[in-house]
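Troubleshooting: if your tokenizer reports a length mismatch, compare your output against this known-good record of 285 residues.
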Amino acid sequence: MDWLQDSFTRSVLLPLLTAFAAVGAIRLFWGPSRGAAVASAATPAGFILAFASLGVSVVPPGRGSLGIVVYIALAGLIVGAILDSEGIRDGARRTIVMALGLAGVAWVGWPPAFGLPAIRDSDILIALVVATLLVGYRITRLSGSASTVPIQLMVASLGLAGIAWAGASNELALIGVALASATFAFVLWNWPVYRFPPGAALVAGIGAPISALGTYTVLFTHSSRLALGTLLLVFFSEWLAGGIYLGSGKLGLALRPIITTLAALLVAAVATLIAYVRGGSTFPF
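Known-good structure output:
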């Protein structure tokens, strides 16, 4: 019970409260215009602090080390904050964010590719690259939305945690929960009233670690790969939510993020259920 309470504090409360307070502090001290532009940097910062408290070794971040995830988050935070503060155009922003996601996959996934049976493992790496590009494209294409991308990143992190837990990897699950909690803080700031745009610091600082964590889950655990593939549908949840008419008034605007969250959670729940049922299943190819 003490372990459970300690894990809850470190992976849920710490990133949530840290990110929530940091968003407000940035907005307060940097002003309404510039502060709003870079407020999303607080989200990966909250995750990084929580990661450090989980006791996971980050030095050296070698092959199979979970410390890679925090370095990718730090790179996403720094690069994203620069993109936000300098007002880099959308095309360049998308390219850089997708490149960071691929860097996370390469750092985690490339070393195991050497010396392993070629066909099966190369197919898995190709699938990971395609999935990372798909996620990167979706979260940068929709980043103008006040809530859609943060919600999708939050639920995807939570889904990764559930899949990792089903694969008997508690450490990975806690990291996924910490990612989700930090992102939830940003979602709270934008509901029911829009306040801060989800900038590149959030998209890269959370999206790239998700790609790295997913790669680690595929290559180093017995978690279901079919479940992980299903989880990708979280990044299309706005399609389901968009089919429900809620009106254009304040109530409709307040309900839209809730419907989007429920649609994404439905996908994550299905993915987690598949992980529990199938165990260590493999890709069909």
